[in-house]
Amino acid sequence: MKKKTILFVLLIPMFCIGQVVKSYKKHNDKVVLTLDKGELYLSPLTENTVRVQYALEIKSQIPELVFTSKVKLPDFKVSESKSLIEITTSKMTVVVDKKSGVLSYRNAQGKVFLSEKPDSRIFKQSSVQGEPCYIAEQGFTTQPDEYIYGTGQFQDGHLDIKGLPRRLTQVNTQIAIPFIMSSKGYGLLWHNYGLTDFNPADSIVNLKPAGTSGEAITVAVTTTNGTQKETRQDGVFTGNFTVKDNGEYAILLDVGQKMARKWQLTIDGKEVISFKNHWLPPTTSTLVKLTAGKHDIVVTGEKNDLPVVYYRKVTNETVFRSPVANKLDYVVFAGNSDEVISSYRDLTGQAPLMPVWSLGYIHCRERFMTQDDLLENARAFRTKKLPMDLIVQDWQYWGKYGWNSMKFDEELFPDPAAMVKELHQMNMRLMLSVWSKIDKESVLGKEFGNKKYYIPNTEWVDFFNPEAANYYWKNFSEKLLKPYEIDAWWQDATEPENDDLVGRKINNGAIPGEQMRNVYPLYVTKTVYEGLRKDDPDKRVFILTRSGFSGQQRYASAVWTGDIGNDWETLRRQLTAGLNYSITGLPWWTFDAGGFFRPGKSQYTDSKFHERFLRWFQLATFSPLQRVHGYQTDTEFWRFGEKVEAESLKYLNFRYRLLPYIYSQGADITFKNGTLMRPLIMDFANDTKALQQKYEYMFGSAFLVAPVVSEAVENWEVYLPENQSGWFNFWTGKHYNGGQTVKTAASLSTIPLYIKSGSIIPMGEKMQYTNEKPAENLEIRVYTGANGKFELYEDEGTNYNYEKGAFSVIPFEWNEQKQTLTIGKRKGKSFNGLIENRVFNIVWVDESNGIGIENGETNISVKYNGNSIAIQKK
Fold first, then answer.
1. Residues 389, 462, 492, 500: which is the catalytic one?
2. What is the model's pTM?
3. 354-609+625-641: which CATH number, 3.20.20.80, 3.40.50.2000, 3.40.50.12280, 1.10.1060.10?
4. pLDDT tens digits for 206-220?
5. Using CA atoms, how far apart are residues 198 and 136, in angstroms rounded to an integer?
6. How far is 161 from 199, CA to CA, in rounded Å?
7. Is 487 noted as a catalytic residue in this protein?
8. pLDDT tens digits for 773-790?
């Protein structure tokens, strides 16, 4: 069914409809242009944001899900000449060509940063599940030296996605966000809730089965019904295609099943795609250089695959196409990456502050079998003095009661309330896995079935139906939240898994699932977040979920990368996936450090896996959330030997020492629309070589992180972006000029880290949990060489009193010319735990002091009582 739908879309003749501007009218909030066919709405949303909507008749039965925040509309003016209409705000201008209807966009300096491609606006009548809809497509001209990032979390390994085809659907390990960011000073959100093809490749290679290869193997895999055995054997498929020109070509492979097991494609005997995991998204893509003429293709996958390969010549354009739409709808944001994301969040919702304990270490495994099992391991963390704040109970605690019955099996967990109480006494918190599917044969499932609260022919709750969502929350609250005082919630498989909206009606049969195919996770997290704010208002919400969509940041949700493998290539691909997710404006992201699917029992003694794990964990230390997980694995550090435990402790201590910095950066996300995990486009958009770095990023304002993602490394080449005042090696204090690649010591104990000159980094004490010690004495490291600022943020950490102003902000400012550090007057209202009088130990970093994880030698110790004070460097 799925393939027929795709082919139907691709084979419909595509043509541009008439776009001559007949007239226009200015309204308070928009300009409406009447074209020879249809209407074009241009709506300035902020000073640097405009929304473009086109249809034969603008109307929508689909709710507004993304742009929900009310912001003051900007002033704008309209001017007209013989050939153009211009709509201008203080920060951008939309230019309409009256003859063609083509739009272009200028920044405040008058420079065109984006243009629609002529004759590329397509709006073609179609249908889905027997109901009318449209195919909407828009092309944009890109510049030859442009770099483009975004579209969410993908497993294809690409960071720069200019020209790359991607099929935007939600599946395990893949999160589709129809948002891109350009190095040329703009962002673009394609506003559609269904499947979207990014840079669609329409030419098809016909493949024929050519037999099987290798032996059939049986593997244990996770499914929505738990662990199951599955027999797999490779299938081989062959075909050929001919291209007219030499050049770069985009290739998209669709395996023809809901999930893939392997991606392997060769062209003329050369392998161009090769990646495998127990579960993979059904599509992947790459870019290849081809010569004119005939080319042979071999696809090796699972024997039951029905693969199709699509291709197109890469040109300087970006295209979005949605096969199920009721209007063509996109939003353009002008400005640098921070300005774009700030406007996006102003319009779609602020990201609330995560609880401070969520930024410590999160310990997870699949799974603790019993209450005693969980508590025994929790106690061991404290006995062994390994820091930890949050322990996670994964699935199947429901036991005999059925999948996600929202009930603990008392044979396994006899007293969950006592379990949570003991964890709290150890200053730990519990996260519990709660799914969006419910076993239909369970007591709870039968209730949902009788009320028709399922998506038809599935076990997924129909969250699009408000009554079903409310009933889900009622049971969630009464059966899990209120009885046990559980602290955090793991919403697993919120895609929903297996792309189960396709071909089904939702919202009690009112809407074809394809219209809302990518937004199920938004509905789930909304239900849980709003329910928690209502029923547990004094506790800060923390949701971990496997999928996301634009706007989801407002529901206190973090995502992780799903059921990934553990090899080096998988590690590399999580990094590019996370950076392309973060650039879409959704700030909280993590992964299963060490991989979900692991090598089995050998992992406990395999030194090669230990090396991979430690590199994974170093990256986790400099990710928004530090977390370990693993399938059929006792993931506790001590089970892997003394070396792994000692090295892990080092990075646990590092994370906890950095909590004042990380929590302050979290506040920057909430109050200033900031971004913690920052692709280099965010800070070095004009540095071409920086834009080419796939495995480097900024962690907050100070840290350049260059994680080791290859085996047996002692030295690692790090590109230091162009920065006039240069960089400091965190481990040695040595200063380097920017704009060069440096060989950096990177033994198994060391993740390469550089600090931007002018940075100010607060470091706390080592702790076993985030609230163990008040931050009365902080080490303040100052990296001189340029002016710098930092705001130290503190509050109660676990509630929403910050929304009423109960927080402390202490500004630090380094003046390079005057060689003076000013600690400004404290801002904010008093709160429980506010440190009125404290000590700041100032460290001027150089090669002899303030290096590595341990405390530096204090140069100046300052007593601070909330009033401004200036410190002269001597």
1. 492
2. 0.96
3. 3.20.20.80
4. 899 998 876 566 656
5. 12
6. 10
7. no
8. 999 999 999 999 999 999
